Amino acid sequence: MGKDRHRARPLFDVSDIIDLEYFLCRDKQTLLEEGESCLVKRDREIFLRELGSLEDEEETLKRPFIIKGWLEAMRKSVADNTSSGVLPSRIWKEFYTSFSWLALFLGIALGASLAFSLLSYQGKTPVNVFVFLVGVVFSQMALILFALVFYVGRSLLGGEIRGSLLISFVRRLFMNGLRRAIEASSPLDGLGDKGVLACLLDALGQASYRKVFIWPFFILLQLFGVGFNIGSLGATLAKVAGSDLAFGWQSTLQIGPEMVHRIVEILALPWSWLLGEGVGYPTLTQVEGTRMILKEGIYHLATKDLVSWWPFLCLSILFYGLIPRLMLFLWAKYRLRVELENLDLGERRFLELYRRLTMPIVETCSSQREEEGREESCDLHKEDEKEVAIRGPVEQGHFDEIGGSGLSRESQGERIILLVPQELMELFDPVVFTEVAKEAGFEPEALIPFDEGYPAAQEQWGQGLKEKLSGHTGEKVKIVILQEAWQPPLEEFFVFLKEMKELLADVRPHLVIFLVGRPSDEKGFDPADTHDIEVWTNKIGRLSYPDISVTGVNQS
Hints:
This protein has about 550 residues and is an alpha/beta fold. The chain has helices spanning about 15-35, 35-50, 60-80, 90-120, 130-155, 165-185, 195-205, 205-240, 255-265, 270, 285-290, 305, 310-340, 350-360, 410, 420-425, 430-440, 460-470, 490-505, 530-540; strands spanning about 125-130, 245-250, 370, 375, 390, 400-405, 415-420, 445-450, 475-485, 510-515, 520, 525, 550.
C-alpha cells in the first residue's frame, strides 16, 4: 500500500465520487426499509473477501483504500448482473464528454463568426485593428484577468471559491441535462426512484464537494475559450490567405503614430524576441502609413503598409487568447487533481460505511424481504458463537455490563453504549433491549436506563456515563438512544440531545437515535413504520448536528 500513496493520480476521481454517493444513497433507502443488518452483512463480507490485507494498516491511511475497495466491489456486483442497468458515473462520463465537445465546437463557431464579421472588407475602408483587438483579444484578456483576480483574491482572503455566475450557469445547465439523461437511460435499481436521484444530486451539490465540482465546469469554459481562439485565429488566417485585406487605424482622440507604435511594441513583447519589428509587428513607418484620415480616404496609403498588421493580429490571438486559455485549462486540471487528493472521507456517512466494513459481526440474525416476487435471505456471518449474558439487575444510575461476546473494544473498533428510557425498562427484561440492538448491528458494552425529562448533567446516570467515558477521549464512542418511532420527537428530547452533547463534549460521541415500533410480547418491539422513521430523520436533520444520525428496523 505504501507505493499506492505515491500514485500518479488521485485515488478517487469525479466518476468515483458519483458512484460512491449513488451507492450510499441507495443504502440510505435500504436502511429505512430494512434496517442496518443486511448492510452490515454485505459490507463485512466484502471486507473479509477483498480488503482483509488492509486490516493492520493505520486507520487514517487505510480508510480511503478500504472505501475505494468497497466501491470497486459494488461496481463489480453491478457488472456481474447484466440486468442492473447503467451506473451514474458512466452517464456522467458520456454526458460530460459530449458537453466538452459541444463547448469546443461552439467556441470555434463563435470565434470564426466574430472574426469573419470584423474582417469584412469591401475595398473602401480598411479593417480597423483597434476594433478587431477589442472584439477578439482585449475582451478575452479582461475576462481572464477578472477570473485570476477573483480566484487569487478569494484564496488570499481565505474565502470559499464558489465560482462565478457564468460557472454557476454552466453547472446548472449541465446538471439539469444530466438529470434528464439519467431519467432517460436504463437506470440501476433505485436510481430511477426520484428520491434516490434527488439524494444523489443533493449529495453532489453539498459543501464538501463544492471545491471539487467547480473545476469540471471551469474546464468546460476553458474548452469553449480554446475553441473560440482556434476559430478566430483560423478564420483570420483563412481570410488573409483567401482575400485581399487592408488594415489600418483611426481614432477621434489625439493619438499620434508614435504612441500607437509604442502600444503595439509593448503588446508584442511576448514574441518580439523571436519575431521582431517589421515581422511580428509593424514598424513606426508602417504605423504612420496605415493611419486613416476620414477626409483623405485610403488611396494615398501604401499596400505594403496596409498588410503589415495581420501577423501582429494573429500573434495577439495566439499569445493573449489561445495560450492563456490552454494554461487555464491545464491549471484547472491540476486544481481538480489537488482537490481530489484532499477529498475528505471523515464525514459521518463515510465513517458509518467504514464501521460496517471493519467491525466484526457477532450475532446471527435473519430478515426476510420480498423484492420483485422473490424472497432474499440475509443471515449475518457468525464470527463468535458465545452467548450474550446480562450480569446483575439494572437500576437507574448503575451500568449493566454486557459480557460474553468474545470481542474486545479494540476488535470492535468503537465503544457502543445503549440508552433506554426508564419507562420502557419496566416492560421487558434488559436482554430484550440488547437483542433488539444487535438485530440492528449494534453490540453494546453497557445498557443504561435514563429519563430524558430531566437534565442529564444533574442525574446520577449522566454523571456516571461521563465518568465512565472521561478517560477514553481517544476512542470512538457511539451512544445508541432507543426511542419509540410512533411518538414524534418533542422539544424536551431536542434539549436532551443538546445536553448530551455538552455533557460529553470531551469524548465527542456519535449519537444514534435507534427507532423501534410499539412494544410486542413476542419479540420485544414491532418494527418501526417507514413514515415514522422519515419524520424523525427530517426533524433530527434540522438540528444540523453532523454527529447525530437516525436508524431503525422498519416494517417489511
